[in-house]
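[Meeting: bench + compute handoff]

Bench side (C.D.) handed over the final construct sequence. Compute side (W.E.) agreed to return the predicted structure before the next meeting so the bench team could plan truncations. Sequence as handed over:
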Amino acid sequence: MAGNARGEAALSALRGLGVAVGLTLAGMLALAALVVWAGLSDSALIALNQALKIVSIAAGALFAVKPGGRRGLPLGGCVGLIYIALGYGLVALTGVAMITPKMLAMEMVMGLAFGALCGVVTANLPAKRVVR
């Protein structure tokens, strides 16, 4: 029984991570269009990129935990941490951005904390009722 619960939790975390990554990809396409058509400044692009990370982690935690769900803290934290680690891992593979260990650690802690917070809030939302 414990193995099944772990498997369900892992699938929930993967589902949330998939939602977060998908939302990020769609958001990046929109940001690229804004850069081309509206000529966004670098500072505006950085701010919108951070906002996109926050929205993606929140959406990922929401889909991983679901309203009224269980394990909000670890599932949300897992989604946030893996999302940030995956993002920085992909950026590091391109070799374009200069990432300092301090910046990476701060982002990972923030992703973990924000994902855990969103997971706890989502778990405490009322669950949807099934009408028969």
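W.E. noted at the follow-up: The radius of gyration is 16 Å. C.D. will use this when planning the next construct.
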